[in-house]
């Protein structure tokens, strides 16, 4: 199964070269970034001073207990939340979206309810340059083909002209993924993009995502609860402590690419999983009660 | 399933007819003087008899109202968007508008007349002045209550404030925009008629004024019926557009699934 | 007191100096002396007084006799009856700027006239035109609210306005104009429309059910009118007592104007205040019937009843400006 | 962070003051006659001078308006809920209301006067009649656009229609209910004043009518200013309640996180 | 960890007895139930004629590919969707909620945004008898304690008075579960209630749910994508085909209760999982395109 990328600005080889030349650059950098929501007594510390540096073109998975601040880190990177302390630099600038083309799949697939699935998926093309200017100039039909091809890949053929409320939870999540990918972003922020899917659909999408990454080498930050998923997809896995979160472990995943599902049953892989499990178990132990934080 | 739908429509029409029958009966039974409240049958007879004479007035009022209404809608959207987006506008423009809106427009009509002469222009302005406020309020509220999650979808893409307004704020606000249109169009008619009674030689307002000074109450009520009918006609037109534009918001699957 | 007869009385317009008699009668207890509890409300126009009474909302009021004629034509059993004629001369007039050179009715041809819809002056314009041989085709009529007439006249949007002189005169004063020097007044009464105008009218119901109360009402008003004819300052005190927002100097002048221009006439001096001459009334009815194209000409006794008037000796009015 | 908030408020107040200064300057520069548009300074002087005389009228108008408004709100919620919940009501009551709303209320005041005499009652009724419609429309629209998912939460529990209305429909509609209150209160003032100009011996409407027939334009405008001020005062009161009740809908985290 | 059930109308032993005496009764019955959404050309067949009979007190897991109609079956049982063909009988009646006390955790945790978490969780007590009448009579405080105890169990101490948008995705899902449980329902409909949670939180909640079920024996219908979860919790696992869905396999799970996490690594358990995996793989193959359905 191959990822369909029409009108891709670069061939696969060109992309590889480009990726290598950018390799030294830092795509996302959090320095002592902390986030506290609310004020005074009711404040919730979501993120402790967090250090995270993601070089351009890397695939990083973020795992950790529920409520530890994973989504908050993604929102920091997307510029949707400002750090209450520390600095967040994306693509060399503090304003994320102006610096890098960002694709984000939110944890809750918030589709705009007045748009069909296809229109929702095409939304980034309406907003982000260079597609934006083309969108106005009759390129709409070819963009629609692009959207349909993506939707077909995730198994949503025939649902393009439905409205979001006509889709099941898992189907929405797949459409959400399409919306994050359609404009070939350089920074991909994925918040549990496969959570509501059955194992098989999930594994299929892993492969699609891996292929995509191998060709275009975007920087990817993936939040997941599935350690197999993290191991299969990522170059690096960051483990977070319980809220207020902080990165307590950062390990490289060395398995060769392209990885296969079979690989995930190999002893090395299982050992990695086990190590992560233990780390998270420890992390959860230390969870303080929220209001007393 | 066309059967129950038709029955539904018939029942509704029946109830509306019942309303007029009730009015008729009330007038007859209570011995109400037709100087105060004529019987609907009287009004209908007058209406039919005088329709040829009334026609140019109807056209005049309708055209004036539509112009004022369209301008009012444009102004309402503009100000509503401004207030919904900018805190400063919320704090300054809102109170001024509330103040202006609390003023009976009949007090400003003379000013319009003295500036622009009597006739269509003051009527258009009065219709505009009276109808834009509900639109402002609903657009502003719609924008202010837009879920940040929906906006975040665009913000993450680096969309400008205007992009967000255009792609999220305004579409989300549509149901309440259409709600305010219903209010605005009725008030636009009131505004036009008001101005026509103050200074104009044509229009339903003028007819009503002359009917009232002739003690011709059935004709006065015929004027009111025409206004009501125009209001309802435009309401129906908007409803059709509304159903197309805001269908997403009024989907109702209450227990219904059957094909 | 419980045995007092309650009478709801509507004025012809908002509080004006020319209404002083009613407030004076109330303040001095004249109504009370007659066993009446009169509640005075401001009005919507001297024509509307008729509808207000016909609808049953009011028992009596100060309004236009011509409006009674108009309603009595179609609804003789419902129209109120005039029982005390106050304004012997009609206030209907055409006012124009002296500078515009309108010296007589003929000069109105080719001009734009501003009229408030439904006011007698506006509605009688056709009769005025016919009586004076004018071609209505050559006169352009523009409708506007009464309070726009003077500003539009001053601004030059219209060449002349169809007005009540008692209202318009003071509107011009309030607009900082000199109504005597800079404006020309063509009064309908001087050009063949010899109509009566405002007086006290009562509902048929009151007339039938309590003639004593009507007589008392008329007696009290008559007494007050004669009193303030001698002392306008006392009359103004009653006006201010009713509505402290009025412009006192202007309203006092208006009160005096009403005596000067509307109440005092040779006829009034002959028959006394409150009464009419039947032949003149019949002529006036004829004019109104023609002007409004009424289906039926009511008889004078349908319109005016002199049975409640005090004796002639009590109706001698002597006006002394002070 | 009280600093920027205060600066914000000051900027807003400054802009409002600027509006009046602009008006003043316009009048002076254009040589506008104060018989048409008086200078705000003239109006304020009149206002201050005549306040003792005006006071009882202000109280009268305010009380009348509040009664009419409260009744109008109650009626509006009732009818809005009815229309939002029942298809038949939507098809019958809505067109009738639109028709009624398109009629200038000045035409129905005489009917009220006949039935209830002149004075406070017709003014209350006029205020009611003119102000309930925006509430009906917004409540009905709010109910019609309530997400079925939210209702499902209660439906699964076997909740009655009324339970759903009370626990989901109405709370969800609150932001738009408050929006409509802003419109309604201003129209309630207009209604009261209208009735007062037609049939009453007291109230701001009466003052304005008498001022206008005396060409006392500064006093007329003083009346308008009073109305505007009353409207704004009530708007502020509602805003405070609104902020408490509908805070959930207007949460804004636009980039703000810092404690 | 023990499930806190205050004011429980029955002791554990009484409940057991009651459960046995009701054993023969059928709690949920779908006979040839089919659901088609929409009309004409745009119709989507969500569920083929489906047969499902769940005796009172049973714990049934429902697994199947994304979009196959699992949520639709739950909505049928809750009376939120009417079958376009066939019959759905719940607690012996066609109107579900009037017959049985139902607790439902929706796939998307739709909290009412104007209520705090605690108020959201207490919502069923405001609606459902016998709590409803007590709610009005000053029992509010004890109800609040009950809500707090439940929230504490799922690790949400201190978030009771927050608003839904102040919680992370996983936290919302846990609150959602509390809302389904608080009124001690006799029929529990759970739609992927643990989807957004990390493995550890998830396993903890499994145990809590199992304990609860052992004591009160409600009838449970659980939709899940996690085969381990299904095996750990359910008496019976129903496998659905791809859309339009239909139950293609219905197997009993015989492992002794109470089950432990350790058990899920035993060969028998792994074999069961493997069998289910194979079934679903086959089921997915046959998925037709939606609009051509
Ligand atoms: N807008 C907000 N206002 C207040 N608190 C918030 C807000 N958003 C998140 N939080 C709090 O911040 C903390 C971290 O939230 P976040 O969504 O980042 O968690 P997460 O790691 O993504 O959890 P999960 O795996 O459950 O999605 C949580 O305790 C949450 O309550
Ligand atoms: N309200 C609706 N209108 C139209 N189609 C719908 C509606 N709800 C569900 N569907 C369709 O019914 C089918 C089954 O949906 P359902 O939500 O039951 O799937 P599911 O098995 O729960 O999937 P998932 O695991 O992804 O949540 C889907 O194809 C969906 O598109
Ligand atoms: Mg999250
Ligand atoms: Mg589902």
UniProtKB/TrEMBL annotation, chains B, D:
GO terms for cellular component: plasma membrane. The chain crosses the membrane at residues 12-37, 57-84, 96-117, 123-145, 176-199, 219-241. It holds the Pfam family BPD_transp_1. Keywords: Cell membrane, Membrane, Transmembrane, Transmembrane helix, Transport. It is a multi-pass membrane protein. GO terms for biological process: transmembrane transport. It is found in: Cell membrane. Residues 58-238 form the ABC transmembrane type-1 domain. Belongs to the binding-protein-dependent transport system permease family. This is ABC transporter permease.
């Amino acid at each position: 199964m191959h990822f369909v990328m029409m009108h891709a600005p670069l061939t696969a080889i060109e992309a590889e070269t480009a990726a290598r030349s950018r390799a030294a650059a830092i795509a996302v950098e959090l320095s002592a970034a902390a986030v506290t929501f609310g004020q005074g007594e009711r404040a919730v510390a979501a993120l402790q001073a967090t250090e995270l540096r993601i070089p351009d073109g890397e695939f990083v998975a973020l795992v950790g207990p529920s409520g530890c601040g994973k989504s908050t880190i993604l929102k920091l990177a997307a510029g949707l939340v400002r750090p209450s302390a520390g600095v967040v630099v994306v693509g060399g600038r503090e304003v994320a979206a102006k610096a890098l083309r960002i694709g984000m799949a939110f944890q809750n697939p918030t589709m705009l309810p007045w748009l069909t699935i296809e229109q929702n998926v095409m939304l980034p093309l309406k907003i982000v340059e260079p597609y934006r200017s083309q969108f106005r100039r009759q390129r709409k039909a070819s963009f629609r083909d692009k959207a349909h091809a993506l939707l077909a890949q995730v198994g949503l053929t025939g649902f393009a002209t439905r409205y979001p409320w006509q889709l099941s939870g898992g189907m929405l999540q797949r459409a959400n993924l399409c919306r994050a990918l359609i404009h070939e972003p350089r920074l991909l922020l994925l918040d549990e993009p496969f959570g509501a899917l059955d194992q098989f659909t999930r594994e299929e999408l892993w492969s699609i995502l891996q292929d995509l990454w191998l060709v275009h080498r975007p920087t990817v930050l993936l939040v997941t609860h599935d350690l197999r998923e993290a191991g299969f997809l990522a170059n690096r896995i960051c483990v977070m402590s319980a809220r207020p979160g902080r990165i307590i472990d950062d390990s490289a995943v060395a398995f060769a690419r392209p990885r296969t599902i079979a690989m995930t049953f190999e002893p090395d892989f299982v050992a990695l999983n086990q190590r992560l499990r233990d780390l998270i178990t420890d992390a959860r132990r230390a969870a303080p009660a929220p209001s007393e934080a | 399933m066309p059967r129950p739908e038709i029955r539904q429509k018939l029942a509704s029409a029946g109830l509306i007819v019942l309303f007029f029958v009730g009015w008729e009966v009330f007038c007859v039974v209570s011995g109400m003087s037709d100087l105060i409240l004529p019987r609907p049958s009287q009004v209908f007879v007058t209406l039919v008899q005088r329709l040829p004479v009334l026609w140019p007035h109807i056209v005049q009022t309708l055209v004036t109202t539509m112009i004022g209404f369209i301008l009012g809608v444009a102004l309402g959207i503009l100000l509503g968007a401004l207030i919904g987006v900018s805190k400063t506008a919320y704090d300054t423009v809102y109170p001024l508008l509330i103040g202006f809106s609390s003023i009976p427009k009949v007090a400003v009509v003379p000013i319009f007349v003295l500036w622009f002469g009597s006739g269509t222009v003051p009527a258009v302005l009065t219709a505009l002045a009276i109808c834009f406020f509900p639109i402002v309020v609903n657009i502003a509220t719609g924008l202010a209550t837009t879920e940040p999650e929906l906006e975040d979808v665009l913000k993450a893409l680096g969309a400008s404030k205007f992009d967000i307004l255009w792609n999220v704020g305004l579409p989300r606000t549509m149901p309440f925009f259409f709600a305010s249109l219903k209010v605005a169009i009725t008030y636009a008619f009131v505004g036009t008629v008001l101005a026509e009674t103050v200074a104009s030689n044509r229009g339903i307002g003028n007819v009503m004024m002359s009917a009232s000074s002739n003690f011709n109450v059935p004709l006065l009520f015929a004027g009111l019926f025409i206004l009501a009918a125009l209001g309802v006609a435009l309401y129906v037109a908007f409803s059709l557009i509304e159903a197309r534009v805001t269908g997403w918001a009024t989907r109702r699957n209450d227990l219904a699934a059957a094909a | 007191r419980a045995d007092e007869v309650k009478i709801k009385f509507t004025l012809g317009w908002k509080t004006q100096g020319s209404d002083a008699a009613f407030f004076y009668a109330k303040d001095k207890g004249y109504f009370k002396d007659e066993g009446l509890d009169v509640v005075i409300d401001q009005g919507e126009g001297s024509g509307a007084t008729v509808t207000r009474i016909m609808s049953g909302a009011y028992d009596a009021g100060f309004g236009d006799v011509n409006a009674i004629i108009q309603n009595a034509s179609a609804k003789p059993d419902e129209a109120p009856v005039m029982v005390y004629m106050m304004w012997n001369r009609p206030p209907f007039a055409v006012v124009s700027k002296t500078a515009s050179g309108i010296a007589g009715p003929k000069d109105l041809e080719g001009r734009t006239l501003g009229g408030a819809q439904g006011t007698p002056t506006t509605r009688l314009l056709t009769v005025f035109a016919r009586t004076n041989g004018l071609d209505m085709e050559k006169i352009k009529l523009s409708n506007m609210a009464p309070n726009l007439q003077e500003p539009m006249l001053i601004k030059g949007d219209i060449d002349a306005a169809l007005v009540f002189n008692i209202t318009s005169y003071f509107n011009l004063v309030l607009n900082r104009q000199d109504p005597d020097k800079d404006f020309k007044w063509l009064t309908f009464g001087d050009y063949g429309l010899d109509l009566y105008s405002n007086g006290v009218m009562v509902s048929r119901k009151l007339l039938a059910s309590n003639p004593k109360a009507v007589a008392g009402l008329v007696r009290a008003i008559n007494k007050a009118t004669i009193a303030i004819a001698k002392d306008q300052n006392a009359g103004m005190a009653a006006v201010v007592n009713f509505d402290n927002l009025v412009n006192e100097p202007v309203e006092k002048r208006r009160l005096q104007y009403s005596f000067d221009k509307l109440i005092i006439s040779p006829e009034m001096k002959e028959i006394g205040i409150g009464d009419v001459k039947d032949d003149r009334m019949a002529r006036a009815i004829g004019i109104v019937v023609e002007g409004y194209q009424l289906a039926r000409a009511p008889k004078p006794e349908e319109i005016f009843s002199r049975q409640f008037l005090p004796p002639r000796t009590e109706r001698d009015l002597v006006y002394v400006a002070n």
